Amino acid sequence: MVSFFRRKKPETPAGSESARRYSAEELAAAFPTAPSGDAPVAPRAPDPAPVAAPVDDRAAVVEKPAEAVEESHDAARKPAVAAEPAETEVPAAAVEAPAPTPATAPAALAPEPAPAPPTPAPAPRPAPEAPAEPDLPGVANPGAAAAPAGKRGWRERLRGSAFARSFGGLFYTNPKLDEDLLDQIETALITADVGVAATTELVAGLRKRMNAREFADAHALLLALREQLLALLRPVAVPLRVARDGKPFVLLTVGVNGVGKTTTIGKLAKRFKDEGRPLMLAAGDTFRAAAVAQLQAWGERNGVAVIAQGQNADAASVAFDALQAATARNIEVLIADTAGRLHTQQGLMAELGKIKRVLQKIDPSAPHEVLMVIDGTTGQNAVSQLRQFHAAVGVTGLVVTKLDGTAKGGVVFALAREFGIPIRFAGIGERPEDLRVFDAEAFVDALLPETLGT
Ligand SMILES: Nc1nc2c(ncn2[C@@H]2O[C@H](COP(=O)(O)OP(=O)(O)OP(=O)(O)O)[C@@H](O)[C@H]2O)c(=O)[nH]1
Ligand SMILES: [Mg+2]
Fold first, then answer.
1. What residues form the annotated binding site for GTP?
2. For labelling, which of 5, 11, 46, 205 has a CA lying 20 to 30 Å from the CA of 237?
3. How far is the CA of 304 from the centre of ligand 1 (A)?
4. How many CA atoms lie within 13 A of 55 on its CB side?
């Protein structure tokens, strides 16, 4: 941390794409605090002192699309325009699954300790004595340990969730198989943000089977609940397939403020880099200077080029430049960042449609994935967020982040039931390795008591 914040700003922007530095004040003012609970996210105020934007040398010679020039960056504040019809774009036919990582491979589980009483506190992280790399907020915590591989890591990180705690407490007391148990399960599911509709369905299914004397005991009922939860999530546990078809696979990240978009891009960059895929990032969050710096820091860390025009540039223009550069350089994956925006702000939502249209001037099939990042601590508000983003830009995949914190966990079921949109990844920690390919079974088993023996 120390070295980064003490670094002086260069007199002139250097020619390299990632060379721009920012002061501690700019960074402190600009890095967000993640919204919690269902509290509405405050719209971001513009930075007080705009900084001269570093201009990518290629960007200067790139011909801007007419639309990008016509519409100013402030177009988002114009009255709402009709949202584009939602569309689901499937990557090209010649697809290739990313190589399975050890983290997602079904791991042989070592025997785990006896069920922990409902104590959610995650282990404190040791403070790094002398971090070798600058400690940028939202970039990575060098002192944080990655979660153990396989199911064990999921369980370790999710056991503090309201879901896991409620069910852990409920079944710790050896409940009887009766109506009272169903009531308690209903309360636990609602409390964990599974949502009223999904909860009602789940409990009605269990009640029917209990009345038909299908369950020998409460344990059998819990196993049936596990099956029902899995049935909700299996259809959406569809991993991202990135085509290797000679043109850049464009991945556009969207979401409300502070949900973890930029951090997820950094983690994905490492994943794609490790797979040996030529990669490029586009700094499409042009509202804050520090947003560009944050992405550049991830780029530097992973040795990945970042196309940026700096603060206040037109986000669609940045995306256009980046796709042109990616095409010229035979890049396989282009990941574009965007500024966080409230799903209720029509003008800002319309700007996403513009980014998509401008990309399609170069490649009509772009973006190949519109990845919406959702903060797992958000609760039921995530449902209306996804509805609005899907209407504006056609979401094709989800990442649910911060499941390691105070997330209740249940909103994942509500999203799956309501939209059926693939959940590509889950964030269960701050390290790049903690962005896991979404695994329905590992997720459900991490939420339910270990006594189930799964
Ligand atoms: N614990 C935890 N923290 C996360 C996770 N993902 C992101 N974060 C943290 O969430 C905070 C916000 O992350 P950003 O990546 O800056 O969020 P953003 O969506 O890009 O924010 P805006 O650009 O302001 O809209 C940072 O402090 C991240 O370290 C996760 O899976 N687990
Ligand atoms: Mg960001």
1. 255-262, 337-341, 401-404
2. 205
3. 20
4. 10
